[in-house]
Amino acid sequence: MVDATKVKRDLPYLCDYGKDIDSWMEDFISVMEIHDIQEPSRIFVWLKVAVEADIKNVLKSLCTSHNNVKRYPTYKEVQSAIEDYLEIKPGDKCSVLKTLKIKQNETIKSFNYKYLTLYHRLERDFMKIISVDDYLNSIKKRVYPHSQVILAECETLSEAFKVAEKAEKAERRTLESTETNNISMVYQNTKNTRNVLLNHPLYRGLVDDDNVNINHSNFNNSYSNYVQEKPIGRSYPGIPRNYENVYFNNSNFRSIRCYYCKQM
Questions:
Q1: I want to staple 154 with a disulfide (CB 3.0 to 4.6 A). Which of 87, 130, 160, 165 is the partner?
Q2: Do 4 and 45 contact (CB within 8 A), yes or no?
Q3: d(Cα 254, Cα 241) in Å, to the nearest integer?
Q4: Long-range CB pairs of 39-47, under 8 A, 24+ apart, other chains included
Q5: Handedness of CA 209, 211, 212, 216 (dihedral sign)
């Protein structure tokens, strides 16, 4: 069963697309497929939800009846009717393509498909106006692919698409490799870290959390011997007796536990 709330959440609204009716229709069809809405009457209902009030009347005029059987318009008929109503000219479609920008989380490959689709819908004379420079302007937020297209001195859109897609793949592999190496280095540094100050007699009786299984009696003896060396009645900084965990301001120190105090 179709969840109307989810469909409404994903639905592309025409008012957000300006004169780019092609992209709106592509996105609308995609949402219908994702939610498995195939019945023409249901598709028509969602079409009316996605457009403004005046365009709803345009869509309603496309419906016809014959022998009590209602016929609903196709996607192509809907798009054509909306473009006629909004007086969208071939030059407007060319302007849409020239100002098209890649989205933040959109892949180069996905963007290229959209770009090429809009390009082939232009009239032949307007196709000649679109250049590699226009494409570069569309992907300039993606610094590495953008730079590689420039360095390759691409002369056609087809060449630019291929170079940009390869650059994005290389960029992703580099990032993945760097992340893996960083994780490995952090793990090794954590395992090998041992502060030399912990070897000082002042820290006898205190052990690292990684060594929780060390014999308690050894610590008790070490601590007792250390205390006996000091005059009675005096307190000595650095020998915490009432705290289970000791933390140091220096971030290189690791948390350590006093087993003597813990047993008390």
A1: 160
A2: no
A3: 19
A4: 40/72, 41/70, 41/72, 42/2, 43/72, 44/72, 44/73, 46/7, 46/11, 47/78
A5: negative
Contacts 24+ apart (CB under 8 A), 167-175: 167/108, 168/107, 168/108, 168/109, 168/142, 168/144, 170/144, 171/144, 171/145
From first to last of its 264 residues, the chain has per-residue pLDDT tens of 788 999 999 999 999 999 999 999 999 999 999 999 999 999 999 999 999 999 999 999 999 998 889 999 999 999 999 999 999 999 999 999 999 999 989 999 999 999 999 999 999 999 999 999 999 999 999 999 999 999 999 999 999 999 999 999 999 888 887 666 655 555 555 555 555 545 555 445 544 544 444 444 454 455 455 445 444 444 445 544 444 444 444 444 444 444 445 444
Q: How far is CA 192 from CA 124, 187, 222, in A?
A: 67, 9, 25
How far does CA 42 lie from the centroid of its chain? 32
Cβ-based neighbour number of residue 190 at 10 Å: 9
